[in-house]
UniProtKB/TrEMBL annotation:
Pfam families: Glyco_hydro_43. It comes from the Bacteria. Keywords: Glycosidase, Hydrolase. InterPro entries: Glyco_hydro_43 (IPR006710), Glyco_hydro_beta-prop_sf (IPR023296), Glycosyl_Hydrlase_43 (IPR051795). SUPFAM superfamilies: Arabinanase/levansucrase/invertase (SSF75005). This is Beta-xylosidase. Gene3D superfamilies: Glycosyl hydrolase domain, family 43 (2.115.10.20). CDD domains: GH43_XynB-like. The keyword Aminoacyl-tRNA synthetase does not apply.
Amino acid sequence: MTATITITNPILRGMNPDPSWIWDDEFQRIVLVTSTFELVPGLPIYVSEDMTCWKHVSNVIDADLARRLLIPFVDDSGGVYAPTLRRIHGKYVIACTIARLDDRRAMEGGCTESELMRFHAAEGNFILEADSIEGPWHGPFWIEGAEGIDPDIFEDGDGNVYWTQTRPAVNPQWEGQTEVWTQRINPETWTFVDDGLPAGSGKTVIWRGYGMESVWAEAPHLYRVGDYVYLMTAEGGTSFEHSEMAMRIYAPHGLLRAFEAYEREASELGECIPQVRDGERCYLGTAIRAFHADKKNPILTHRHLGLSEPLQCVGHADLLLHPKLGWWLVCLGVRETRGKRDGELLSYLGRESFVAPVSWEHNPADWKLDGNGAPYTHEGDPGWPVTCAGLGRLADEITVTTEDDGIAIEPRVKSSLAGDVEPALVDVADGSTNDVVVRDERDVSYRRIAKLPTLMPIPMSGSLVIRQNSTHYAVFSMHGTDVRYEMVNGDDSQAGSVAVQADGVRPAVLFDDNRLSVIVTGMHGLVDSATFVRQGQVLLSVDARFLSTEWAGGFVGCMAGFMA
C-alpha cells in the first residue's frame, strides 16, 4: 500500500533553536525539545509520528523549576542552552546548561551561597529526568566537575554512559578554538566515574575541530551505528559560518574497549598519550587519533551558498532513525531578510528547527594505485551520513512515499524561505494560554513571532511590546485617538504619537520589510489581515533593523507581548 506525506520546513517556526530529538519506541512517536534561554515556561516538548504535524504536549521547566535553575537571574540570551534529549537506563533524560548567570542579581534575589556553589561547581550543567515525557521532571542534578556548554548524554550498548561536551581549548592554537571532551558518568548518582580506565579517569579530549583554524567545535553528539560510534559536532559558530561535521571510531565491542585499543596502539607506535592537564588525557595524537573524520566534511552547511541564500546559519544537528521513514536529522537555521545595502542580511525570527533526510554512503573506490578490484566493506560499516543527497542544501519541502518495497524521498526547493506574502495575525490581547515570560518578569506575557510579515493589533487597553532583548524593543499603546510609541535601541530611544483620527477604529502594527508600520483602516475587524494591510493607511513607518539579531546581538528572536 502506498502512502505519501509532505514535510514543510521549518518544522517549528519562530525561535525554536538547538533542537534535539529521539524516537520513542514505547509510544511510537518522535519526541523533540528545543532551547528557550530566559523564557519561562521553558524546554517545550513536541511530539510527532511523521514530522508533518507537531503537537506541543508539555513544558519541562515551570516557574518553580526555573527558580531552582536560577533562570530569573540570567542576562539577556542567557539561561537554558542546547538541551540533549535521550533515553538513559529506561528514563527520559535531558542534559543542558544554564549560561550567563548574574551572581550579584542571584544573591540579591535570595540565592544561597550553597546554591551558587553547586551551580559553579557544575559550570551550570545539569540533568533533568522523568518517567514520562509529560513529566513531572526531577532535578536539577548539577554535574559537579562538568566544564563548558552543550552537553551530550550517550548510553552505549555495553551499558556505559558518557557525558560529552565542549569547552575552550586549554592550550589553544588560535582564537576561538574549542575542544570536545568526554567522561563516563553514573546515571544513578549523576557523578563522574573514576575507575582508572579510559574515559573514567578525568576528562578525555577527543576532538578540537576539523581543520586548521577551525573554531567553535561544539554541540557534540555521540551515536552508535553498526560497529562504529559516530561523533557529530557543529563548527564555525552559530552564525554565517555554521556547519556540521561527522567523525567516527571503530567500536564493535563498546566505546570503552575502543578507547583501550587506541591506547594500546598509541603505545605500540611509541606515542605518549598527551596530558592536557593533570588527570586528563587527549586522544588527538601526532601519529594517530581516536576519532577519524569524514573526508567529505562538512556533512551539512549553507555557508558555501553565499549571501544570496535566504536560509543561513545551518547546523547544530541531531540524528534520528525512524522505523518506517529511515534516517533523518534535525538542525537549526535562520531565515534572513534582505536589507537595502549589498550583502545586508537581517534575522528577526531567531533560530528555527529544520529537518532533512539522511542516507549512508561508502566511497565507491578504494583509491589504491595498483587497483585490487572492488573495495570491500564489512557488514557492520554503515559508511558516512549524507544530508539531502543530490540537493546540497536543506529543502523547503520533502515528499516521502512509502510502499511495500521501500521508501522514496524527494526533497525540493520551491521558493525563497525568507518570508511569506500573507501576513500572520498575532493578537497579543486574545488571552492565549501559550504565552511565556522573560525570566520572572510577569508584567509582560510574550509569544514568538513565527513569520514575516506579521500584523499585530494594538490593544485598546494596555500595550503591544515587540521585543528583541531588554535593550532593543518597541512599545505601542492607545491614548484616546492617538497611538503612542517608544523605540528603544540600546542607549538611544525615540518616542512620539500619531493621531488615528477616528473613534472605535483599532490600529495595528505591521512588521515586514525591515520596518514597523502603524496601519489603520475603516475595518472594525482584523479577521482578514491581507485585506487590512492592502486597504490600510500607513500613519507611521520606522526602521526595524534595531530589532534584528545582527544589530542587537545575542541568540534570540523577536517576540510580541502584551503589557497590561
